[in-house]
Amino acid sequence: MDTLNLELFGKDPKVQKAISIARNVSVTKAPVLIVGEIGIGKKVLAKFIHNRSNRVNQPFEIIDCNSDPKFAENKILGYRDESTGRFIKGVLEVANNGTVVFANIDGLEDNFQKRLHKILNELDDYDIDIRIIATTTKNLSKLVGSGRFYRGLFTYISSNSISLPPLRERVEDLESLSVHLISAHCTDGRSLQLSKDALDKILNHYWTHNIKELKAVIENSISNCNDDIITEEDLEIGEKKTVDMMSEEDNEGIRLMSLKEAEKLLIKKALIHTSENRTQAAKILGVSIRTLRNKINEYRNNGNAFFVNLR
Q1: Quick one: 190 and 144 in the same domain?
Q2: Could you please report the per-residue DSSP string of the chain?
Q3: What is the pTM of this model?
Q4: Are residues 118 and 206 in the same domain?
Q5: 80 and 225, same structural domain?
Q6: Considering the domain boundaries, does residue 44 fall inside one?
Q7: Which pairs with CB-CB distance under 8 Å and at least 24 residues apart come from 296-302?
Q8: Residue 238, domain CATH
Q9: Parent domain of 301
Q10: Which residue, of 126, 141, 163, is where some domain finishes?
Q11: How many domains does the chain have?
């Protein structure tokens, strides 16, 4: 496990620096914050830190903070089952002596962020010894500055911060990862290669879901390929496989809605995904920055809470 299956992370200097930090902090008890976009491997890196620590044979628990607020709170702290009256322990107790990963920690409700911070600082009083790892796709420092994330909790989790750069910024890794994934998923003995046009299409795509999306595209292209060369036509990028590539972290789900609702939801998701960088969000959406600005103003004027609070 020490190698972390590096083929699935790449050899970009920024990635190598992130892995080096992960190795160094794994031998400590200090909390760790892992920052990166959807599908980049944050949970895998968290597992790597756990497996390199002296807690490797102890529990490893993940709680998705983007889930229903009450469910997340119960999962963390425990709750009493209404039908049996039995108390169900939360992950803070279940993982005693092990590691707890707060995935998408920015998803916790404001009041619970403060409560969790207080509880984490009092764990020793309850003879609970756990390693805390948090992940986020957001710029938490920016959220703290705008009053949308509790400063005390941020200070607690961010003493060791690891950033994973997006896949689209690592052209060399994109090519090597594609080759590796093709080799790894050719289980029928075939030896496939990428055509130049197919590789160009991969290198020029905006990989919103990063390695997770690339893996899904490669697996599908292998199924589509009837020859020894994967062509541009074999790659279904940004087309009918988009829904299948949605990350488990992207938990809005798919439901029937009006085009106007769908438009608003897509704009919201693009802004969240880019930590509210409007230029990048406009690029993802395929619209001009002026069009995006007008839409934001429209939703703000209609009183939509997300857009009203948008900085």
Answers
A1: no
A2: -TTTTGGGT---HHHHHHHHHHHHHHTS---EEEE--TTSSHHHHHHHHHHHSTTTTS-EEEEETTS-HHHHHHHHHEEE-TTT-PEEEPHHHHTTTSEEEEETGGGS-HHHHHHHHHHHHTGGGGT---EEEEEESS-HHHHHHTTSS-HHHHHHH-SSEEE---GGG-HHHHHHHHHHHHHHH-TTS---EE-HHHHHHHHHS--TTHHHHHHHHHHHHHHH--SSEE-GGG---SSTTTGGG--TT-TT------HHHHHHHHHHHHHHHTTT-HHHHHHHHTS-HHHHHHHHHHHHHTT-HHHHS--
A3: 0.75
A4: no
A5: no
A6: yes
A7: 296/267, 299/264, 299/267
A8: 1.10.8.60
A9: 259-308
A10: 163
A11: 3
In tens digits, the chain (311 residues) has pLDDT values of 344 565 678 889 999 999 999 999 999 999 999 999 999 999 999 999 999 999 999 999 999 998 888 999 999 999 998 888 899 999 999 999 999 999 999 999 999 999 999 999 999 999 999 999 999 999 999 999 988 899 999 999 999 999 999 998 898 899 999 998 998 888 767 788 999 999 999 998 888 889 989 999 998 899 888 888 999 989 988 654 444 444 444 444 444 457 887 888 889 888 887 878 888 888 888 899 999 999 998 888 877 767 877 76
Instruction: Decide if 162 contacts 34 (C-beta within 8 A).
Output: yes
